[in-house]
Amino acid sequence: MTVRDYAVDALIAGGVAAELVCCLGLLAMRNAIDRLHYAGAGAALGPALIAAAVCVREGFVSSEGLNSLLTALLLAFGSAAVAGATARLIRFRQRGGLESTPAERERA
What we know:
- The chain is mainly α and 108 residues long.
- The chain has one domain (3-107): Helix Hairpins (Orthogonal Bundle), CATH 1.10.287.
- The protein has 4 helices and no strands.
- It has helices at 3-28, 32-58, 63-95, 102-107.
- It is elongated.
- 17% of the residues are buried.
């Protein structure tokens, strides 16, 4: 095995470990806002490490490398947009509006 193979194996192992930690975090958290943090990390960190492994193995400027990077970027930005919308909806349902409370304004 070459150094490149070890790097690919380490990146894939890191990506799988990140996904497992995020799944365990989703199960362990009690409320939806805390779960959103783990869902966001699961959609950004794991795919980024897997895309890096593909780029190391196939080359950055190859169709496989560029496709994996594009997929990882779309997952990261798409999940951030969905998480933001979900958080706004949770706040709206819990408080009846999106305005900050006087206590929140005081802390800021």
